[in-house]
Design brief:
It contains four helices and no strands.
Length: 83
């Protein structure tokens, strides 16, 4: 397979299949370089087509992030036994 930009889900699935076939490729070999390039192309596509939102409902920050609470401020809610 000649590496190319991934523009749709078909290209994406094809690239993932080729990555699977190349997983044992040695670094600094033609197969290893193809693997590295395909992984980079897949990562680029995933960021665009399958972005990961912020944690929380609908991608909104969690309440403690909005209130600028520190992790220790959440202990009573996470583990009541530690109060």
């Amino acid at each position: 397979m000649k590496p190319k930009l991934i523009k749709n889900e078909t290209d994406y699935e094809t690239a993932l299949a080729r990555i699977d076939a190349l997983m044992d490729a040695e670094p600094d070999t033609p197969a290893g370089e193809e693997l590295e390039l395909l992984v980079t192309l897949v990562e680029m596509y995933e960021k665009k087509a399958h972005p990961i939102d912020l944690p929380g409902p609908s991608g909104h920050p969690l309440p403690h992030e909005q209130q600028e609470l520190k992790p220790k401020d959440l202990v009573p809610f996470i583990s009541p036994a530690l109060r």
